[in-house]
Design goal:
- The protein has a domain at 209-321: Aldolase class I (TIM Barrel).
- It contains 16 helices and 21 strands.
- The chain has helices spanning 3-7, 18-29, 58-66, 72-79, 92-100, 129-160, 175-188, 197-203, 213-217, 222-232, 246-262, 277-290, 306-314, 326-329, 441-453, 474-494; strands at residues 36-42, 53-54, 106-109, 115-116, 123-128, 165-167, 193-194, 238-240, 269-272, 297-300, 321-324, 340-347, 353-355, 372-379, 382-390, 400-403, 411-414, 420-423, 426-430, 433-434, 470-473.
- It starts with a helix and ends with a helix.
């Protein structure tokens, strides 16, 4: 079997959990398949114990939805599935329904590169119940991972304080598709380049790299290896100096740098991939300066993340460029975002929308009902609060109170008339047709940078960040509480 040929195809409709298909069949059998519903994709906690999250993956979502259809090979596979008694799992009429199924949903979403916060929807899907249900798993798969990695990249870039961060994670990434998605998301999060050549080709991300220790080891001496590399790439010389002895490696890099200079060329710098990075970078900087190479860059790698970079910064390490791989593309310290996809409204037989709520003993897990959106308020270019509100609810410009969805004692009064505002959910699809012009990856990256600039620095602290205010508009809060009490009363009556 040719895995890449079979997997990487335009239509991935079966990239779903099995129970989505069994629910779809049960909806169809119960006559509910075309009942209109609204689902929201959101997360409950920031990853990495941080103060912000960076949305990513919408481009993939659009591509998936545009190719949403059941083809003959998909239906042939479903046709052979059996119940325990040997009868077909899915009726032939249901498979015929799937064969004719066309994507007709409305999708609204925050734009890629938008800073987002817990409980507010990243994606809202409205359409026939079967279609909404079948979109759950792939949308979560796409948004969860790319949002997680974009956020990790942004945190690493915050720690680097404006110095270039190179993404080197391909060899440690979670498979082919994980590597490509991680390179894309890392670029959105602020990385300047990737080592992943395929990502460079597919997404237009600048590619970069130096050479490996094996290059050095294949020659008799380190100096000979540097000379050969300089002969091949006289304009791109960054010498890896820690194969044998780091400081001696710096000396050899200087020697070859002098040879390059005699030919009218300049070495870019050196890379240190092991040992005490603070100590060796400072010593290397001193040696390079004394030898007349004050502009030579010092690149550091070796299992870096935002916390190690922040520590090296506090030690005044002389590092100009940061190569980050494993801990970025695997989101090493928290490998899942935990976004969920919940039903919030359904249209009844009378054509009226009924808000829905999932009740839990944990207030964190009680979803937000109704057809809602998020409004962000700005003052002098800085984001001050997000309000989650029902779309059919008028907002009093004289003043509103937002209530924390987890802790109702946390409240904030806002005066909308004194703020600039932005509605975060944008129309992406209307009745199955794309109505949104996808920006380029560079435009998404630029948006992410501007979004991060709009946050107060206290929200961007790597440890113990200040909590950004996000709350429910009062009417939505009261609706939620009313539905929770109603559900609990019904549960008690059932008992």
């Amino acid at each position: 079997m040719k895995i890449t040929k079979d997997l990487y195809q335009s239509n991935l409709v079966l990239l779903t959990d099995f129970y989505q298909l069994t629910m779809a069949y049960a909806y169809w059998k119960a006559g509910k398949g075309e009942q209109e519903a609204v689902f929201n994709l959101f997360f409950r906690k920031h990853p990495f114990e941080g103060g912000f999250t960076l949305a990513a993956g919408l481009d993939y979502v659009v591509d998936f939805c545009q190719n949403f259809r059941f083809e003959k090979a998909d239906l042939d596979y479903l046709e052979v599935m059996k119940n325990k008694d040997g009868t077909p799992l899915f009726e032939a009429d249901f498979l015929d329904y799937l064969q004719k199924l066309e994507f007709t949903c409305d999708i609204d979403a925050v734009e890629e590169g938008t800073v987002v916060f817990p409980n507010a929807p990243l994606v809202r899907v409205r359409g026939p119940l079967i279609q909404c249900q079948l979109l759950e798993t792939p949308l979560l798969n796409i948004i969860n991972f790319q949002t997680l990695i974009a956020t990790k990249a942004a945190r690493i870039n915050v720690a680097a304080q404006g110095e270039p961060v190179l993404e080197f994670g391909l060899r440690r990434a979670q498979g082919i598709d994980g590597a490509l998605a991680a390179s894309r998301a890392s670029y959105i999060g602020g990385c300047t380049s990737t080592s992943n050549v395929m990502a460079g080709k597919l997404f237009g991300i600048p590619v970069s790299g130096t050479h490996a220790h094996s290059w050095i080891m294949s020659f008799e001496t380190e100096l000979e290896a540097f000379e050969a590399y300089a002969d091949a790439f006289p304009d791109q010389c960054i010498f890896l100096v820690d194969t044998y002895d780091t400081l001696n490696g710096v000396k050899n890099a200087i020697k070859v740098g002098e040879i390059l200079r005699s030919k009218g060329k300049e070495m870019i710098g050196i890379r240190i991939d092991s040992g005490d990075l603070a100590y060796f970078s400072s010593k290397a900087r001193q040696m390079l300066n004394e030898a007349g190479f004050p502009d030579a860059k010092i690149v550091a790698s070796n299992d870096l993340d935002e916390h190690i970079i922040a520590s090296l910064k506090s030690q005044e390490a002389d590092i100009n460029v940061w190569g980050v791989g494993t801990k970025l593309v695997t989101a090493y310290d928290q490998p899942a975002l935990g976004a969920v996809y919940k039903l919030s409204a359904i249209k009844n037989a009378q054509g009226e929308w009924e808000p829905k709520v999932k009740v839990s003993q944990q207030s964190l897990k009680i979803n937000i009902p109704g057809i809602h959106n998020t409004k962000r308020y700005f003052s002098k270019g800085k984001a001050v609060a997000d309000m989650i509100f029902l779309e059919d609810q008028e907002i009093d410009p004289r003043g509103v109170v937002i209530i924390d969805p987890v802790d109702a004692t946390r409240r904030k009064r806002l005066m909308p008339a004194f703020y600039q505002e932005e509605i975060l959910l944008k129309p992406i699809f209307h009745k199955g047709k794309k109505v949104y012009n996808l920006p380029s990856l560079t435009e998404i990256r630029d948006r992410a940078a501007k979004q991060l600039e709009s946050l107060d620095k206290t929200h961007m602290r790597l440890v113990n960040p200040h909590l950004y205010p996000v709350g429910l508009e009062e009417n939505l809060h009261h609706l939620r509480m009313e539905l929770v009490l109603k559900a609990k009363k019904f549960e008690n009556e059932e008992e």
